[in-house]
Amino acid sequence: MRDVYVAGIGITRFAKQPDRSIKDLLAEAVTSTLKDAGRGAADVQAAYVGNAVAGTITGQEMVLGQVGLRPLGIGGIPVINTENACASASTAFHLAWQAVATGAHDIVLAVAAEKMTHPDKSLSFAAIGGSVDVETVPEDLPAGRSFLMDLYGAAALEYMAESGATAEDLARVVIKNQHNGALNPVAQYGGELTIEEILNSRLIVDPFTLQMCSPITDGAAAALLVSPELAASPHIKVLASTVRAAPVDGATKVIKLASQAAYEIAGLGPDDIDCIEVHDAAASAELMAYEQLGLCELGGGKDMIRSGQTNLGGRIPVNTSGGLLSRGHPIGATGLAQIVEAVLQLRGTAGGRQVENARIALTQNAGGWHGNDNVASVIHLFGRS
């Protein structure tokens, strides 16, 4: 296996964009990525395209990558479509990394796009609901939300009872991420909120109020991966890339399983990381991720958010992009959006949300749900040299 570097990145605005097509979003992300890398469409030797819900929302299934890249002049090469729930984009990146690391190709594109906005919101919620074992879904589902949020809510209540975390702690996650989102020009939301405003907003499902849940979003993101001889300064190296499914016996949380493997590959530990993007599909998921990534002991997530350790300027800033809660969560594109943020931080070009002297970054993307855990998790570690 050889070293792999990120040569270019691109991302669209994340927002509800009813007038834009998924092809349009994909094209913007790819074009900006190639420009960032100083490459053209003819240079791309293979492409991995992530998406999760287009088949339900737009009716486009099976060949999204091929038909989406064709107008950009990208064809005649391997184009592989990847679907892995909310981890679709990071899975596409993992496969692109494998293609370069094994020497199969020297220049590989990873891109993901998602169109979630639809006039019928129930269709959007139904699409998200496909990320669970559909045979377990009750027939009398409540209207106005995804069943996935019911599962996150139940897990959050259990976690809060065990850890001592409170609704105020969940609000603190929102406050931090909304603050960071205000500093991110592509974020869907961002602003200065108070605990009271968050707790008094509309209840979605106990214990989550509106801002504690990630929104419906349209957007796309991409990265171009290259072999060592094609890398340019600043060198952003992929230090580790791991994908794991939840163990059948549930003995180990899937985030912990994937992160431990990534730490071992990179020869690093949690204390070596300068900034992190985690999968905060709900506010409680961020606190749980702190613990499962080894940033603190079990039950210590609440102490990290209360003390400001994960704020900008804190010991280890988390979700500098605004996270899913503020930047937005276009299901199949989120993992690459996290990677874009990690690369910006390591390049030192993240603007007002820049982490000082960032050298090592981690992204944690998860997808689906079964029992009391995500069914998939993807971890990436990046380093600047």
UniProtKB/TrEMBL annotation:
Record-listed E.C. numbers: 2.3.1.176
Thiolase C-terminal domain segment(s): 251-372
Keyword Acyltransferase (UniProt): yes
Pfam families in UniProt: Thiolase_C_1, Thiolase_N
UniProt entry keywords in alphabetical sequence: Acyltransferase, Lipid transport, Lipid-binding, Transferase, Transport
Thiolase N-terminal domain span: 15-188
InterPro entries membership: Thiolase (IPR002155), Thiolase-like (IPR016039), Thiolase_C_2 (IPR055140), Thiolase_CS (IPR020613), Thiolase_N (IPR020616)
Molecular function terms, GO-annotated: acyltransferase activity
Top EC class, one word: transferase
Superkingdom as given in the UniProt entry: Bacteria
Signal peptide: none
Family matches, as Gene3D superfamilies: 3.40.47.10
Family annotation (CDD domains): SCP-x_thiolase
PANTHER family in the cross-refs: ACETYL-COA C-ACETYLTRANSFERASE (PTHR42870), NON-SPECIFIC LIPID-TRANSFER PROTEIN-LIKE 2 (PTHR42870:SF1)
Protein name as it appears in the record: propanoyl-CoA C-acyltransferase
Organism name: Pseudonocardia hispaniensis
